[in-house]
């Protein structure tokens, strides 16, 4: 039976019981029971005057405390359970299920972005959309909201990926799920770092900001062991406040990157992290920097763009990220810049040698004699699709999403789109399978796949994909006029 992924990709907001019964702390027990009975509810929230949750009264409270121990006129604050575990409506459903199972709860109050209660999530209804195998996986992925708990969640991803692959789930869907879990870990780490900062007297963020992740994570295509590719987009502020505000974000970035490393995301060897000022800027500075990048043909600048263009917001309101994405969509499609981007991507071509045979890595080392399916497979495919997307002002980020959008616009014909999407599925499956094999054999996770690890049909499919990719790259080269300049 195929594993149902709905428990992983759905949000709490789609499964809220509304309205929620609420009472004040001074409400009598008898009145609370009456309100619950009238609404046919099994619980009621006890709210302060400002709407904050003080406690919860459940059917068990009614039976255990009110009926035999408390007078009906007693204030409900004496019967309520407190403190109350809660969950935000934007969070994933699997986290709500895991939290309720871990804490032995039948329901959780759901809060909106402002912290106000908007309803309840019921364990029974949440479980109804998840298969038993999914529940086992949820239990492995949900731990307490500490760095150690999040580290255990990160460590459980390989086992989850293996089970999904065995259940014939397409590899891009598995990578998308891993990417979403990683994005959720980023959000949780930010919240924990902010909370710890407040406890140390560092205060609230001085201006709005957003955490972005770049590269494969931004495309929802993370591998099993991604390093940190992150940055900050900070709201504009007066130059006179720079020392104070920049100092706050320097401190925050250092603690954030260290925490992410503890969770299981190694530091980026190329320093593509929020601790590097290149990747931590005000929104106006980002736009200025992008304007400079788009007008240059330097190899370094082009590599920075190659990393950055696939960014997405994983913490914050998303408005700053949207503004920056609109800037890229508007200014990136100039032929000079796209030609230079193509020349950079052209360095890495499909792994085809003489007579159309698969080309293996000749460099001495552990990858020698194997096919580098990242460097000579996914990278040239992803790069070609990205350049076409920039040219056509496509705002989609995932490779498959971009291919669909390009097909709809007529920038790819049906055959080209089928070869690219099928090829991406095939390459990512082979890469994921190899990485899982490396993981289970205690080897470093790599991108080299031995020829003998592929069936004859898999090798033939790979050759067909690479031939199609060569043809598409040749068309892009011609359309951009690369040979004329």
Task: Provide structural commentary.
With 485 residues, this protein is of the alpha/beta class. It has 3 domains: 6-142, CBS-domain; 166-328, Beta Polymerase, domain 2; 335-484, Four Helix Bundle (Hemerythrin (Met), subunit A). Helices cover 51% and strands 10% of the residues. It has 18 helices and 12 strands. The protein has helices at residues 6-9, 29-38, 59-69, 93-103, 123-127, 132-141, 147-155, 157-166, 171-199, 242-263, 283-293, 299-308, 319-331, 335-346, 374-391, 399-408, 414-440, 456-480, and strands at 22-23, 43-47, 53-58, 87-88, 107-111, 117-122, 209-213, 230-234, 280-282, 312-315, 370-372, 448-450. The strands form 4 sheets. Strands 9-8-7-10 form a 4-stranded mixed beta sheet. A 3-stranded mixed beta sheet has the order 1-2-3. The chain has a 3-stranded mixed beta sheet with strand order 4-5-6. A hairpin with a 5-residue loop joins strand 2 (43-47) and strand 3. The longest helix is centred in the middle third of the chain and has 29 residues, at 171-199. It is globular and about 90 Å long. The N and C termini lie far apart (55 Å). The relative contact order is 0.08. The model has no long low-confidence stretch (mean pLDDT 87).
